[in-house]
Amino acid sequence: MAPKQIPERDPDAEEEPVVEIDRVTKRYGSLVAVNDVSIPVRDGEFLTILGPSGAGKTTLLHMIAGFERPSDGEIYIDNRPVSDEPPNERNIGLVFQSLALFPHMSVKENIAFPLKMRREAPEDIDGRIEEVLELVQLPVDYKHKPVGDLSGGQQQRVAFARAIVYEPTLLLLDEPLSSLDKKLREEMRSELTRIHAETDLTIVHVTHNQTEALSMADRIAVINDGALEQLAPAKEIYAEPATPFVAEFIGDTTMLDGTVDRVDGGRATVAVGDDGVAVETDGGLTPGDGVRIALRAEKIALDHNSVDADNAYDATVKQVAFEGDQTQYTVSVPSLDTVIDVTHQDPDPETVFDRGDAVTAGWDAADTFVYDQ
């Protein structure tokens, strides 16, 4: 077999990343699970790979870990190509969705396991275990408890402790919070953020949960059908989605398809259904263009009478879902031949609506994202 071709690196890069995924592709027969993806991971960064089920994010993580080998491209760790290295030579910590703790062992034995595999001096192991238990905020006297006697949250902390006790170059998290209930998941999100801040670990985290990604990540890599849709800081991903997929996947978003009817300076009117939608443009739209418009649910105003907005339409409330801190409305807009999602957090009785109410729905041109179809 011919030797693997390692892609050339950019010699002008300002800062060498701890991990570099460089034009990586993974094929399984005719199926392309990951397609020409490049992601640099910075020292001390919390990077989340986000996407729906089957997007290729776990395959990408497994290639970083060494469980899978790229079909094309290369992965570098500390500037070293590692595709031909086994997992145990990569100095990587791992936490899986299943946690993969040893149920027949105590907390101490679970955490000590990777240290013993690395032939650490026995006299050093106890001290390291106590340090890491303090970091994950488990009482030191828990080290003698059988791991099966712990709660789900406590087991999660043991799994994190075991993954970082040997001070890995990189920590990989494969949907570790997905099996937890809502309250515990929120608690562990906060704990992970704290641990990252206190240790400055470089973390690559995989999830399909956008709330997890937005709340924890420094940057997010959005993956769809094996390809990288956008790589940017969390706030930028939400405020400036680069593609229709990112706009629809991140947040509660309604998509409208239409054709540009006219352009007037920085404004354009898009024909949607039997009406028009005003949008902002930087000059990239011309009459006749097919476009997709993305609307965030929280940017849409509802009123029993009228709304002060660039776009306003007669509408009917079809569904109401009260969620405590907010209310979700599903609203039919006949003139646009569509149904839109609306999120309201205002407790004012005048802005509370019931199923069947006739309302006005509206939003400003500046609150839309516009993409080529």
Automatic annotation (TrEMBL):
SUPFAM superfamilies named among the record's database cross-references: MOP-like (SSF50331), P-loop containing nucleoside triphosphate hydrolases (SSF52540)
Source organism of the structure: Halobellus salinus
Subcellular location: Cell membrane
UniProt topology in membrane: Peripheral membrane protein
Residue ranges annotated for the ABC transporter domain, each copy included: 19-250
Pfam families per the UniProt record, alphabetical: ABC_tran, TOBE_2
Protein name as it appears in the record: Molybdate/tungstate import ATP-binding protein WtpC
Subunit note: The complex is composed of two ATP-binding proteins (XacJ and XacK), two transmembrane proteins (XacH and XacI) and a solute-binding protein (XacG). The complex is composed of two ATP-binding proteins (WtpC), two transmembrane proteins (WtpB) and a solute-binding protein (WtpA).
UniProt GO MF annotations: ABC-type tungstate transporter activity; ATP binding; ATP hydrolysis activity
